[in-house]
From TrEMBL:
This is Phytase-like domain-containing protein. It comes from Acinetobacter beijerinckii CIP 110307. PROSITE patterns: PROKAR_LIPOPROTEIN. It comes from the Bacteria.
Length: 309
């Protein structure tokens, strides 16, 4: 990888007391930017026309009716819903946001579909769906369920397991039309594949988010290297990658996130979304979770050379 393939354009930090939470997902839909934290039950929303700064005021959008009656606060690790995946999908011909829990505990088995046009939300995946995912060896390889990413090409839904414990990085592909027709995940299943991910100093990375770049017909994923022995506890972060795959999981290119001086940044990237095209490449937004420290939003450029197959 050439260092010029990936460049950080801007970076914004949010302190732990800013109520931003541990950022785990990011999405751009129409004229708005949405952020989600794994320890909150609301979306953070701001206009894309606003210049993003460390003091940007975000609207809090409750994800459940009961949330409107509760203080929109940050949850403890044991109580948090662990929303790890945020993605834009077309559902019933309308753009929606899908917010998906990791499924690593019973409190984390929920996936919510939010329609920004009418502010309505509903449960998309229920306990039966999560039980199917939990017992699907093609996804987990027999390890505990730990969903970290979901994305869509408008016809399929891709669900990613973070397999840094057993090095099994499974991906399941579902027929979105069947899900819209109220079929279960099991009855909407199309195929599965495994990803090969890079390492840092012998420690394997784990998928942390994904975005389907329809114009390039590519899966754009992020992967973080975290030294942990299970799917629940946090560990030392060594760095993060941006990875390009074909729709069937064949690797295209790998990009370690580094400073302008070429040093690996010890950040845990948890979310990615496409922002805009430029003559010299594609611009994405990344969000990081620093496990109690400052959360960050990074604007990065992937040069056109990164997409050469």
């Amino acid at each position: 990888m050439k260092q010029t393939d990936l460049r950080i354009l801007e970076k914004f930090s949010f302190s732990p007391d800013s109520a931003i939470g541990a950022l785990s997902g990011v999405a751009c839909l129409e004229d708005y930017l949405y952020l989600i934290g794994d320890d909150v039950r609301y979306l953070l929303k701001t206009s894309l026309k606003n210049k993003l700064t460390a003091t940007t005021a975000f609207e809090k959008v409750p994800l459940f009716e009961s949330s409107e009656q509760q203080a929109l606060a940050i949850f403890s690790k044991a109580e948090k819903p662990d929303f790890e995946a945020l993605s834009c999908i077309i559902f019933n011909e309308q753009p929606h946001l899908l917010i998906m829990g990791s499924g690593s505990t019973e409190k984390r088995k929920q996936a919510v579909l939010y329609n920004p046009s009418n502010h309505q939300f509903k449960t998309l995946l229920d306990q039966v769906d999560y039980d199917y995912l939990q017992h699907c060896a093609a996804l987990t390889g027999g390890a505990d369920l730990n969903i970290e990413a979901v994305c869509s090409d408008n016809r399929h839904l891709y669900v990613f397991q973070r397999g840094n414990i057993n090095h099994f990085h499974g991906v399941l592909v579902f027929d979105l039309a069947k899900i819209q027709a109220h079929k279960s995940l099991e009855n909407s299943f199309i195929r599965s594949f495994n990803l090969t991910l890079p390492e840092i100093n012998g420690s394997v990375s784990g998928i942390s988010d994904a975005y389907f770049l329809v114009g390039q017909n590519l899966l754009i994923a992020t992967a973080a290297v975290e030294q942990t022995l299970n799917t629940y506890d946090d560990g030392d972060v060594l760095g993060s990658f941006i990875l390009l795959f074909s729709p069937d999981g064949q690797p295209i290119s790998s990009h370690l996130i580094q400073s302008a001086e070429g040093k690996t940044l010890p950040i845990k990237v948890e979310g990615i979304t496409w922002l805009e095209s430029r003559p010299d490449g594609e611009v994405f937004l990344l969000v990081t979770d620093s496990d109690g420290g400052d959360s960050e939003v990074l604007k990065i450029l992937l040069a056109n050379s990164a997409f050469i197959k």
